[in-house]
């Protein structure tokens, strides 16, 4: 460039006059227009004509531990309960805080995909059911697990393991009370829950705090943490290769360890089958056996590890977290606890242990579980979002392909126009009105809805009902010195910020 041209260019960028250079000024104007567009930066860059209401700029709430509350507040402030647009970096989001639009999103085939985070990809979860793209591979996994892992027959057959693990938990509570005079409930529940899923999936139980059991707990904990981390690289592509938060590095290290651990379990099954001479009789094996028996849709070893690992991972914490919230409520509301115990005593008595068959006769206990799911949904934003596969309308808003869609189930279950006195814990509300929580009634759909509804919901509910009944039958739960702190912390799931520590006084 000749020198007058350079001077000209420099004048535009860095003028010697006190006024802004035209290019800099233009840049600032364009950025402000983009920034203050309803829904923020990512929406401004999209080709949407009529805008969806929402906050300008970039929303940081998703990186915090109360995203469900912040989004609920924003949706109210922008009068955008049916649908609110917002941006996180360059990612376009919509969030529904109303049952009607929630139904539209969750039940529409346009939202049958999930956005895949870097951590999920690195942990190979795109080969497991939860993050697999909507298509043939996902459909096969869904069919296989619905038929073999989550069928009513399977769930009923695994009742004896649930009972045995429930007994172990009761013994553990007694032991802890004897030693310390109080119980950190989540530790007992986590141990039980992990073993329960291990039995269904791997067909084996581990001793926790020791050897393989300890290693497995560590793997699950690390995976949970990694999937829960808000990773800026997911939303600002340029940060991708820097891996500033170290997520990629940790994921790769974890995947190596998971491959060895789960690979060993698969090999043990292969060996058992060789000794047994071919495939196992129907109904004898666990989920590893089922996957090894597949003929047409045979999975590679890598895919099998991903599928098995996801089940363990998904099935463990959700159940333990929900039960911890329920027990916290039982400690806080002695009147409700004793009403549930009277119901159990009337139906079961105290000469035998409560079993799966008693649960249908315990409507008050079931209402306690529903009310806890309403007040403390483990996935308040339904955990895993959906992705618009193609352009679609939600309500009267146009949502372009590639938009991430969320449902704020917490906002819906705390909306006083839907649930009177939403801040009060009142199981009685479900005695008066039978509300299905399995996905057909979007006023309370803690397991999601539609094609990608949680496939483990029946197994989760069978476990939660039985263990809750058992823990209430055996103990009266009272607060310890520290009381009960209901503060929340949203990671992968909505957890209690301070673990529940209380006393369990024997009843039987
Ligand atoms: C209290 C317990 C549980 C809760 C609250 C829960 C909640 C959820 C939610 C909200 C979703 C997303 C649904 C949607 O997008 O519409 C989901 C998906 C899923 N859940 Fe659960 N879940 C629980 C227990 C379990 C268990 C025990 C398992 C398995 C052992 C499991 C396996 C899965 C899988 C594989 C998916 C992904 C399904 C797909 O994308 O096709 N969950 N769960």
TrEMBL record:
Keywords per UniProt: Heme, Iron, Membrane, Metal-binding, Monooxygenase, Oxidoreductase, Transmembrane, Transmembrane helix
Positions that bind heme: 454
CDD domains, per the entry: CYP78
Entry's transmembrane regions: 20-45
GO molecular function: heme binding; iron ion binding; monooxygenase activity; oxidoreductase activity, acting on paired donors, with incorporation or reduction of molecular oxygen
PROSITE patterns named among the record's database cross-references: CYTOCHROME_P450 (PS00086)
Cofactor(s) listed: heme
Homology family: Belongs to the cytochrome P450 family.
UniProt name for this protein: Cytochrome P450 78A5
Taxonomic classification: Eukaryota, Viridiplantae, Streptophyta, Embryophyta, Tracheophyta
Gene designation per UniProt: LOC105056078
């Amino acid at each position: 460039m000749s020198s007058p041209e350079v001077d000209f260019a420099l004048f535009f960028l860095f003028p010697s006059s006190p006024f802004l250079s035209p290019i800099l000024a233009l840049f600032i104007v364009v950025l402000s227009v983009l920034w203050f567009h309803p829904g923020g930066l990512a929406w401004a860059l999209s080709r949407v004509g009529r805008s969806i209401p929402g906050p300008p700029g970039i929303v940081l709430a998703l990186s915090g531990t109360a995203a469900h509350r912040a989004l609920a507040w924003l949706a109210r402030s922008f009068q955008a309960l049916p649908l609110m647009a917002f941006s996180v970096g360059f990612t376009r989001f919509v969030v529904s805080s109303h049952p009607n639009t929630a139904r539209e999103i969750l039940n529409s085939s346009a939202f049958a995909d999930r956005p895949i985070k870097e951590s999920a990809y690195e942990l190979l979860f795109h080969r497991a059911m939860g993050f697999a793209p909507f298509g043939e591979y996902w459909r096969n996994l869904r069919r296989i697990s619905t038929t073999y892992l989550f069928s009513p027959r399977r769930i009923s057959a695994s009742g004896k393991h649930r009972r045995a693990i429930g007994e172990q938990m009761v013994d553990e509570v007694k032991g802890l009370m004897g030693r310390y005079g109080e119980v950190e409930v989540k530790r007992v529940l986590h141990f039980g829950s992990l073993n329960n899923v291990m039995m269904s999936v791997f067909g084996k139980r581990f001793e926790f705090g020791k050897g393989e059991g300890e290693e497995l707990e560590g793997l699950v904990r690390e995976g949970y943490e990694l999937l829960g981390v808000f990773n800026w690289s997911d939303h600002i592509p340029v940060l991708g290769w820097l891996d500033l938060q170290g997520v990629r590095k940790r994921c790769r290290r974890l995947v190596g360890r998971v491959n060895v651990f789960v690979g060993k379990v698969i090999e043990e099954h292969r060996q058992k089958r060789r000794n047994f001479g071919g495939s196992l009789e129907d109904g004898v094996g666990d989920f590893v056996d089922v996957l090894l028996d597949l003929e047409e849709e045979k999975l590679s070893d890598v895919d099998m590890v991903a599928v098995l690992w996801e089940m363990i991972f998904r099935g463990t914490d959700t159940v333990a977290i929900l039960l911890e919230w329920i027990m916290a409520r039982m400690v806080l509301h002695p009147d409700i606890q004793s009403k549930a115990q009277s119901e159990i005593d009337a139906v079961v008595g105290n000469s035998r242990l409560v079993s799966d068959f008693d649960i249908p006769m315990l409507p008050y206990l079931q209402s306690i579980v529903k009310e806890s799911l309403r007040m403390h949904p483990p996935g308040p934003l339904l955990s895993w979002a959906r992705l618009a596969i193609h352009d679609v309308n939600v309500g009267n808003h146009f949502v372009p392909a590639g938009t991430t869609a969320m449902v704020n189930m917490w906002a819906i279950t705390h909306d006083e126009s839907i649930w009177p006195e939403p801040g009060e814990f009142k199981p009685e509300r479900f005695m008066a009105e039978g509300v299905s929580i399995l996905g057909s009634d979007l006023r309370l759909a803690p397991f999601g809805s539609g094609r990608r509804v949680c496939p483990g919901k029946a197994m989760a509910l069978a476990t939660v009902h039985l263990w809750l009944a058992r823990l209430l039958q055996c103990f009266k739960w009272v607060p310890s010195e520290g009381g009960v702190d209901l503060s929340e912390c949203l990671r992968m799931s909505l957890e209690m910020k301070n673990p529940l520590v209380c006393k369990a006084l024997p009843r039987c």
